Amino acid sequence: MSIPTDAAGITGARRFDLLPVENLTPGQRALYDAIRSGPRAKIAISGASKPGPLGGPFNVWLRSPGIGDCVQRLGEEIRFRSTLPSKLNEMAIMVTARFWTSQYEWYAHCKLALNAGLDPAIANDIAEGRRPANMDADEAIIYDFSRELHEQQGVRDATYKMALDRFGERGVFDLIAVNGFYSLVSMCLNVDRTPLPDGESLPLKKL
Asked: Is there a single domain that holds both residue 31 and residue 118?
């Protein structure tokens, strides 16, 4: 397996062992079933798409099934019912993954962003830590808002106004939510050192 290197350059094997389905407690099994029966299970590269133990961050969430269920339901809302178009939502996730150097998160969501229509050159620029040169107006708003939110713990008035004028108050909140939620996902993946599938190279270098 490709063992992720986190932002501090730490390497190592997975910390949270995969939990066999037959060993799950009733609470864990309820969370497992909720994730496996939801929309994530229909996405081929999702850690919920294959029979057997849950992968990705879901394996970590099983350790605390009450919190894990709240987290998975929040994630489903942010991921599948956002007012932001899929391409823009996935782009915000990529900015978050790059900020956290979350290898697994980038691996999964870059593919989804490209499938949703994001220019590969934009993805490459984000991966390299550069502001993409050829973004359209919507992409630029998503990128600038997300970067400022992570790096400055807030956004400038001009950035906020552009997001508000384009996406409205709900869209602004949806954008805040996707950045915040995938920061939590990045934390789970980085602490776990969640490995990529066999044969996959680490997509992000340390900046």
From this structure: no
The enclosing domain of 162 has a CATH number of: 1.20.1290
Using CB atoms within 10 A of its CB, is residue 14 exposed (0-12), middle (13-18) or buried (19+)? Answer: middle
Position 8 pLDDT exceeds 50: no
Residue 72 in any domain: the answer is: yes
Q: Band of the pLDDT at 11, cuts 50, 70, 90?
A: low
SS3 content of the chain, % helix, strand, coil (to 5): 60, 0, 40
26-35 confidence digits (pLDDT tens): 999 999 999 9
Q: pLDDT, tens digit, for every residue of 60-95?
A: 999 999 999 999 999 999 999 999 999 999 999 999
Q: Kindly state whether residues 98 and 158 are assigned to the same domain.
A: yes
d(CA 21, CA 25): 9
Residue 9 domain flag: no
- Let me know if 184 is exposed, middle or buried by CB neighbors in 10 A (0-12, 13-18, 19+): middle
Neighbours of 109 (CB within 10 A): 25
2 backbone dihedrals φ, ψ, rounded to 5°: -85, 110
d(Cα 86, Cα 172) in Å, to the nearest integer?
15
Q: Which structural domain range is residue 36 located in?
A: 21-80
| pTM of the predicted model as reported, rounded to 2 decimal places | 0.92
6: pLDDT strictly greater than 70: no
Split into its structural domains, the chain has a count of: 2
Q: Which amino acid is located at 121 in the chain?
A: A
